[in-house]
Amino acid sequence: MALRMWASSTANALKISCSSKPNVSLAFSLSRCFSTVLDGLKYANSHEWVKHEGPVATIGITDHAQDHLGEVVFVELPEPGGSVSQGKGFGAVESVKATSDINSPISGEVVEVNSKLSETPGLINSSPYADGWMIKVKPSSPSELESLMGSKEYTKFCEEEDASH
Amino acid sequence: MGVSGKPAELLEIESVLDDQVPVIRRFTGGGTVIVDHGTVFVTFICNKEAVPNLQPYPRPIMSWSSSLYSKVFQGIGDFHLRENDYVFGNHKFGGNAQSITKNRWIHHTSFLWDFNVQNMSYLKHPKRAPAYRSARSHLDFICRMKDYMPRSTFMDKTVEATETQFSLRPIQLEAIRTCTEAEFCPSSRFLTNEELEAAAVALQ
User: Fold this and answer.
1) CATH of the domain at B130
2) Which residues, renumbered to this chain, carry the PTM N6-lipoyllysine (chain A) (predicted)?
3) How large is the ipTM?
């Protein structure tokens, strides 16, 4: 456990990003791949990220989430024009034998949905912060972003969550 | 059928329509099962904190449930979790599915108590099959739970195993029905004949 915590801090300090391979061969034969966390994004404790750029915010799930979920085979997303509320579910992903809710980190109106995900849901695994984006939202209360975690806080949150289980 | 199941890929639609077999799409993930009078369903609906130190993700939940069933099937038929199925040896007798929300999760298993060989022909060989299936036909892949354990023994042992983790009290089904909120609308639903016919046509 201590070794894993040390390696996790080291990996993050070196900004090592891992692909979604479940087992990475490192010098110490660690069995867990450490998740990427990007600076400049905000994070919810249900493992979604939001990138606020001007009038639009882009939302997806984090590398930590996709790694724990496994291979995503199906994604259910809302229609543009619908609304999302902070902390409430807006869609779901199917992986392994489970559907897992995705919750919105902020409230607002859905302005765009990533249509590529219906044909290639695996983009969520291979590119959770870029090609695997899920929805774009016009935020209704931009101050909600302040209640979310920054990258350092979220990294610590993930480490603590993984360590306690 | 699981939430994302495509009828044309999973079912022999013509036979299903001819024989008027009801098709239900449930809200959990996973595959397609034939439900008959013998099928045993065991469902766990848990708050996030109900099982200490359990992360609410598919594999940890699957692992937790399989350790519970290991107690049930101890010494019987070489039980284990194989990929996401419950097997005796390499024959599947239990299929699993889950749904995970922010604060709760459901894990349910349909146990293949017995099966009618003819009914199996309603199912196609799924595109996404576990590696251990090794392209076996349905009949070579599955086995009957009744060949391993009496039904009452299975139920008693499942209750016993669950009691090692939770405090249990029995409740009548009617009591659950009457306390269901009036506005609750189940998302699990029957597929209509029109939907099945459209799927059959699209396949051609």
Assistant:
1) 3.30.930.10
2) 97
3) 0.88
